[in-house]
Design brief:
seven-stranded mixed β-sheet; Arc Repressor Mutant, subunit A; two-stranded antiparallel ribbon; 2 domains; alpha+beta; WH-like_DNA-bd_sf (chains A, B); homodimer; Nucleoside Triphosphate Pyrophosphohydrolase
């Protein structure tokens, strides 16, 4: 072995996933009720140990899939947590990831198997270890991202109304937005396609439907355009 | 041991530091020439293994101090790199940090001891492992941060001219900025104190000196204000 590689310095490396979903009203986080020690019976993020044949991204994908049944969802690496006693069993560093999934699309059976449940951000219970800190950090990162990139479109149906989009941003940013102001700012980003179609469920006049314009967005991305709401 | 904690899954955890400095013209990165294996003789970031009695932040601080002599400099955790074969000796995950230090203030003796050298971003050599990727990621993060927060003031003397500030932003963003536009945008952020003092070295008329107003900045921080340059 080369200098510096002391076997006793090795650590366990866990991956924990903050899974966000949106149900038309609220931004929610998916949590599991642990039926194993340590901290059996407490709420927790879904997580697992990094295996020798996978990268951190691989592990995050495996863990998300095991709980929700969904695969190949983009997850962003958030932060590596390393407090000395964060895990009472053994020195464990945890790299957290966050994912945004369509709340309709998870596999209900899997979720029940893990006693998992969606929690509104305002109702997140006391979690094991430093998991509350992870969730808070993920929310802050998501809010920041939302201001820089039009993240969040994956949370909406393919065609959506301005009202739905505003609701989503209000849920992520946790504040009410002025309707006219919101529409102006969104339009100034010029990344939506207005369809010749209306959603007639909300009013007799109906509301125009929109689509996210991936191509325009990809072109603009380099400019780091901002959406200050 | 509880389920899941398999000793053979443990990994080495390294910390690598991307150390930025600014010399009035260029943004630079501090690199060391390795005099140990593996990859002896190649350029590299300064790094080390996480020890059992320290957090990742502690390790980053120790590593920065060992090379530069400076302590308690704010470092931001960047990303954890985990490609399977990134380190040919043993499975090692590396958590990278970046720091911004005053290029004048490092300890010259220490730097020579590590055969370290400042490189302009345009001249970064071929580095060991995935260190080039780390540097590129740090530059992107720094550029993004610069647009959100007035990062970078730590790179300037306490009192500075608008010209110096513009030079710094041009170095970080790697593009020329229009002078009038820059001044307007900086002023609109309202986080500088204009001093009743001039720097007389640059012209006979002299240039007003400014200071960063930490108090105003702290108050505004919550608003996530942007500086789009």
């Amino acid at each position: 072995m080369y200098t510096g590689y002391n076997l006793e310095d090795r650590v366990f490396l866990a991956v924990d996933c903050i899974i966000f979903g949106f149900d038309d009203e609220d931004l929610k986080v998916l949590l599991i009720k642990r039926d194993f020690e340590p901290e059996k019976g407490k709420w927790s993020l879904m997580g697992g140990f990094l295996k020798s044949n996978e990268t951190l991204d691989d592990a995050a994908d495996r863990i998300l899939h095991r709980l929700t049944g969904v695969h190949d969802i983009y997850q962003e690496q958030l932060y590596s947590f390393s407090d000395l006693d964060r895990d009472p069993v053994a020195r464990t560093i945890s790299t957290s990831y966050y994912a945004i999934i369509n709340i309709e699309k998870h596999n209900e059976e899997l979720i029940q198997q893990y006693n998992a449940q969606w929690f509104s951000l305002a109702d997140i219970p006391d979690l094991i270890f430093d998991h509350n800190e992870m969730v808070q950090k993920a929310i802050r990162r998501l809010r920041r991202r939302t201001s820089i990139n039009p993240i969040g479109f994956e949370l909406l149906p393919e065609k959506f109304t301005m009202r739905q989009l505003q609701k989503l941003y209000e849920a992520i940013l946790d504040k009410e937005l002025d309707k006219r102001n919101f529409i102006n700012k969104i339009n100034s980003m010029d990344i939506l396609i207005k369809l010749n179609e209306k959603d007639m469920t909300s009013s007799t006049k109906g509301s125009f439907l929109y689509q996210f314009d991936q191509e325009k967005y990809d072109k603009k991305k380099g400019d780091n355009f901002y959406l200050k709401l």
